[in-house]
Design a protein that fits this description.
With 293 residues, the protein is mostly helical. Helix content is 74%, strand content 1%. The chain has one domain (41-292): MetI-like (MetI-like fold, Orthogonal Bundle).
C-alpha cells in the first residue's frame, strides 16, 4: 500500500489539503474532547484527572435531563408538522396544475440559506411580549396578549416555529425529488381505475417515497437534537425563564464557554453523541424492518 501511495504521491498531494484540514479542525477536536471528558479543566490552569466522575455527575444532573426533555419537546413540536407540510408542499409542486414551479421551489428553499441569526432576530420581533407583531394581532381581536417569552411552553413553540420556517422548504425539495422518481404510468392507471387524489396519495405516493421519508426523519432528528442558534440568540445563554429554551447543545455551550467547565462540557457533548447514536440505531432498525417486508 505504501508503495502505491509513493507511486501516486502527486495525486495524494493534491487531495491532501482536505485531509489535513479535517485532521486539524475535525478529528483532533473530537479526540481531544474525549480526553477532556475525563479531566477537570477551566481552560487556563492545569488539567486534573477525575476519571468517570464527570459522567457520573452527568447522569445525576437534573439540568442536563431537563435540556434533553426540552430538546425532545422542541423536536416534536417542529419536526412532525414540518415534515407533514413539506410533503404537502412537494405534492402540490409536483402537480401539473401548478405554474411557475421554479419560482416556488426557490421561494421555499430560500429560508434554508438565510442567516439563522437574522431569522432569530426577526422572530424575536414577532414573538415579543409587549410590542411583538403576533400580540398586536391578538390584541386587535380583543384577546389577551400571550407572554411568549415568559412561559416555558410558549418559548418552545416560538423556537419550534423558527425550525419549521427554516427547514420545511428544504425537506419539500427532497420530497419533490422523490416524487419525480415515481413513474407517471402509476398515476395514470390509478386515474383510469377511478382512484381519488386522496387514494392516490396514500396508495401510491406514500409507499413509494417511504425511503425518502425515513431519510428526512433521521436527518431532522439529528438536526433537532443539535438545536442551538435558535435558542441561544432568541433566549440567551440561560435558556429563558424556567430554562424552557435550554437545549442540549445550549447547555453544553453554557457549561463549557460560560462557566469554563470544559471537562464537563465535553462530557455533555459525548452524552449528546450517545443520544444521537441511539436515535440513529432506532431509525436503522426501522429501515431494516420496513425493507424486509
Amino acid at each position: 500500500m505504501w508503495r502505491e501511495i509513493y507511486r501516486n504521491r502527486a495525486i495524494y498531494l493534491f487531495i491532501s489539503p482536505f485531509y489535513i484540514l479535517f485532521a486539524i479542525f475535525g478529528l483532533f477536536p473530537i479526540v481531544f474532547s474525549l480526553y477532556l471528558a475525563f479531566h477537570k479543566w477551566d481552560g487556563i490552569g492545569e488539567m486534573e484527572f477525575v476519571g468517570l466522575n464527570q459522567f457520573r455527575y452527568l447522569l445525576e444532573d437534573a439540568n442536563f435531563w431537563q435540556s434533553i426533555w426540552n430538546t425532545l419537546q422542541i423536536w416534536a413540536f417542529s419536526t412532525i408538522p414540518m415534515l407533514f407540510m413539506a410533503l404537502v408542499i412537494a405534492f402540490m409542486l409536483h402537480s401539473a396544475l401548478v405554474k411557475y414551479k421554479d419560482f416556488y421551489r426557490i421561494s421555499f428553499f430560500l429560508p434554508n440559506v438565510t442567516s439563522i441569526v437574522a431569522v432569530a432576530i426577526v422572530f424575536g420581533t414577532l414573538f415579543g411580549n409587549r410590542y411583538g407583531f403576533l400580540n398586536f394581532i391578538i390584541t386587535s381581536l380583543g384577546l389577551e396578549p400571550v407572554q411568549w417569552l415568559d412561559s416555558p411552553f410558549w418559548i418552545k413553540i416560538a423556537i419550534s416555529s423558527m425550525v419549521v420556517w427554516r427547514w420545511t422548504g428544504y425537506n419539500a425539495i427532497i420530497y419533490l425529488a422523490g416524487l419525480q422518481s415515481i413513474p407517471s404510468v402509476l398515476y395514470e392507471a390509478a386515474r383510469i381505475d377511478g382512484a381519488s387524489p386522496m387514494q392516490t396519495f396514500f396508495g401510491i405516493t406514500i409507499p413509494l417515497i417511504k425511503p425518502v421519508i425515513l431519510f428526512t426523519v433521521i436527518t431532522s432528528t439529528i438536526g433537532g437534537m443539535q438545536i442551538f442558534t435558535e435558542s441561544q440568540v432568541f433566549m440567551g445563554d440561560s435558556g429563558g425563564p424556567g430554562g424552557g429554551g435550554m437545549t442540549i447543545v445550549l447547555y453544553l455551550y453554557q457549561q463549557a464557554f460560560t462557566k469554563n467547565l470544559f471537562g464537563y462540557g465535553s462530557a455533555v457533548a459525548w452524552g449528546l453523541f450517545v443520544i444521537i447514536g441511539l436515535f440513529s440505531v432506532l431509525n436503522w432498525a426501522i429501515v431494516q424492518r420496513s425493507g424486509s417486508k
